[in-house]
Structures are given as C-alpha cells and as structure tokens.
What does this fold into?
Amino acid sequence: MLKKEDIVHIATLARIGLKDAEIEKYQRELSLILDYFKKLENADTENIQPIGHITGVDNVLRIDEAFEGEVDVREGIFNNFPDTRNNKVKVKSILA
Amino acid sequence: MIREIHENLKSGKITSLELTEKYFDSIKEKDDKILAYLTLNKDNALKSAQEVDDKIKKGEEIDLIAGIPMALKDNMCQKGVRTTAASKILDNYIAPYDATVVKKIKKEGVVILGKTNMDEFAMGASTESSAYQKTKNPLDLSRVPGGSSGGSAAAVAGEMAVYALGSDTGGSIRQPAAFCGVVGLKPTYGRVSRHGLIAMASSLDQIGPITQSVEDAAIVLSRIAGMDKKDATSAQSSGKLYEDYLQGDIKGMKIGVPKEYFGNDLNEEMRKISFEALEKFKELGAELVEVNIPHNEYALPTYYIIVPSEISSNMARFDGIRYGLSIDDEEKSKIGNGNLLETYLDTRENGFGDEVKRRIMLGTYALSAGYYDAYYKKAQKVRRLLRQDFEAAFKKVDVIFSPTAPEVAFKFGEKTLDPLQMYLSDIYTVTANLIGAPAISFPIGKMTEDGVDLPVGGQLMGKWFGEEELLNAAYTFEINNK
It folds into this structure.
C-alpha cells in the first residue's frame, strides 16, 4: 500500500495540486491498480529486449531548415496563450 | 450507405444542403437526450454543403465522401473550432490548424457537422469521464455508449451523422461501436497520421472511422490513410482504395480462434453468440483454426502500465502557460505566491478530472527512479513477447476472432467507482494497440438485458497493414448476415 507521503510526492512530481481529502482516495485507488500490475512479475522476460517502436520504423529525418509558418496559424497559436506581453507569451517567474 | 448517398447526390435526388439540414434537424430532435455533440458548426457545414452542390450543378466530378455530413471526435483539431478533448483544461482552446485527417477529408468536400463528446482526453471506456456531459446510448438511454469515442458512436447509431471519426488507444473506437451496434475500425499503427490528434498514449493512438457498414469504413479509411511528414510514425501507403478489395468472398480464409479468449470467465450468452458468428464464417467458406496467445493474460496490465507512463509525459504540456486554462490562485495555493510551480499545481488541479489525474500519477510513479525497470521496462518487454505471439499466430491464420468487449453496454455509474473494473472492459481490445495491428468491430448479434435487445460486437484482428483482408472478412460476414 502506498503511503500518504508517497501520494504527496508523486503528485508534486506530476505537478498536480491535491486537496487533503483526495490523498486517501488516491492512496487506495493507486495501490489497487499497482497490485494488479504485479501480475506482470510472472512473465518470463529473460533475454527479451524492450520494444521501442511497434511497426519497426527506423529514424525519420528531415532537413533542418526554418520555414515561414502561415500567418493565421501563428495568430491562432498566439490567441490561445493565456497571458501575453509585447507580442510574446508571458511565463511566471521561476523564483518567488 | 455512403455509396448510396453519393449516387443520390449525383443524380440530384437530394442536395448536400438538404441532407445537411436533415441531419441538423435530427440532431435538434434527438441530441437533447443523447448528448453526443459538444460543439455544432452549422454555418461551416452549410457552406461546405453548398460548395459541393455547386460542383454537382456544374457537372464536376465529386469524391464518394463529398457533401456527406459527418462528425469529429473532439480530440481532433479543426481550424478555428473549439477543441476541448472533453476537458475543462482546454475549455477555451480554439484549434489554430487542421489535423491531417481533417485536412484530407476537407479536401474531398466533406461536411463536418460538429465535434463529439468523449472521455476526458480519451481516458475511459464509457464517456462518463467527459467534463461536460454524459452521452447516452441511443439504443437504451439508461446505458453508456461505451468509450472513449462514445459521442462519435452515439451520433452514428442515433442517425445524427452518416459516419464519424474516432481515436483508438485500447479499444476507444471498437468498444463504443460494439455497444452502439455500428462498425468501428482501428487501422494499423502508422496507417493514419496522428498530426493534430490530441495525444493520449502516442505509441498506441490511432485514428479510424465509426460507420454504419463495413463498406463505409473502407471508403473512409481510403480517404484518411497515408504517410504524413508531420507524423514521423506514419507509414507509406500506395494510395489504395480499400473499398475495391471488398470481394464478398472468404473461401479458404483461415480464421484464428485463440483459446485464451474463450475461457471460463466469458459470459455464456456472449460465448454462444461468438460461436454462432464463427459458424457463419465457416458456412461462408472460412476455415477455423485454434491458435495460442501464451502471453495474453499479461496484455491488460502491460497496457495499463504503458498508457499512464506515456500519458504522464504527454499531459505535461498542459501547464497553464501555452494554452488552455491558467489558474494562479494565491488563496488556494499552499506554496509560494505567483510563481511558476504554483501556476502548474493550481491549473492542473482544477483543469483535470479524476481519471486524468489518476493516470498521470500512475505514470509518474511507474517512470520514477527505482520503479522504471519493474514497471515500464518490464511492460515494454512483455509487449515484444505479445507481438511475437501474434507473429507466430499470423503464420497459421489470416485473421483472429474474438468478442469486442466482455459485455454489452452497461448502465451509468456501474463502473465509475472502481477504476479497475472500467479497465477490464478493454480486455479484448488493448492487444491490437499493443502490437500495432489493425482490428475491426462489427455487429454479430443481440443479447437481451432487462427486456432490451442490446448489440454484441465481434472483433477481427488482422496482419500489420493488412486492412484489405480484414475489411473483406468483416464485409463478407456483414452482407451475409442481414
């Protein structure tokens, strides 16, 4: 069973704010699901390589060059920014 | 159905404008109850319809799907249209560009009626996790339409769209198609570009059609398939028209029946209907062959490790900075004031629903130091074993049959309290995504529950990039089972 501190730690890593009442709920739910995952321990994976890409596509490359984006697409992206200043996206200060 | 409408449009029996109006009337009449749509786009739809009508009037050639009204799952970007993925975190998001699939069908003159409801970010199997509304199954309003493409399946089954596009990460096209009595196709991974699809688990996501017939699924697939430089995982396509491969003949085809899929835990009635379908295939000239999928029991836990892991990474982009909801509530916050971390925590706490938070945290845990090998790496190894199981099986058979879901459409709230129960609804569908193979769900019978006849879906899985054979098998069954 995951401990309360585990849930708080995971939530902070995942950048999700939690209410105190939620901690217990996730403690219970996540522990149940993790228990279910234990089933995998029985699978014999000795000498088996993890699979990277399922249809075996190799590196896909393109020429590294700048191209002019469409103006209305750029405007569309810009309009979705929650906060802007001087035609730039505004980011919160990293240090308080 | 698409072909018939196409002929009617060409002969002038109906105009695209009339047809589009008819579908909006149908939506107006039914969708108050069914709640399949999140956003309607009548002005755009009528404009597209008019353009097709003008072409027909001028005697120009039109494509099979031109002028035909359809619906888009709300995780696909349509330029200038609100695209929420059924999440509050994208409540105000207006797609700045068209997804590749949207661009492709627009080019053929398609009429997009609107955007359909889904589980939030496609995480769910009942569409109940939508932050906006609970879509009802048109065949029984007390039951779910399945998920995550529940709105798309309900729109098609409720005759509020001729067809719809959905996305399928572990059954999200096929299971709702089965629950609503329609056809759903998940193409081979890479067959259809994912550019402009809001990602859930990138190594598994694939876009595909939900339609009223197998032929329609083939027609739509032909229009959305192909390589796209904006999706590096998309594969070359020779520009095939899949509808040309529907011969209606499967004599000599070998259909694999994995014994692991028909174990004791399968519902008796479901087993009976599945075996009747297999008998039908036999009558049509197919040969039934027992096959083994030795690692089958690991498919679901493998899937539910890989999916949250990829989710925890994909969802990192919802940070309150680049788009969507942004909350910086000093009152609510426990740390600092007005800083970046606080914005992250507040935005994601308020913007994401329970299932999304659960999966992000699970994935974060599975990928964290000390657990990575035991969970994610182990799952990726088992994924290879599963693929090997199927490579061996497909040496003996052409397609593999199973039920689509272990149950018929269930009632609202039946599984929402226990996430694991909801996950088990995907037991037959996740494998096709894990191994990247194509799979189709099509109606094979009906089961009666509480006096209501509910559809049962059968699933065929095909060889990698073998959609022609897969579609032909389902098509042959369908035309002989009316």
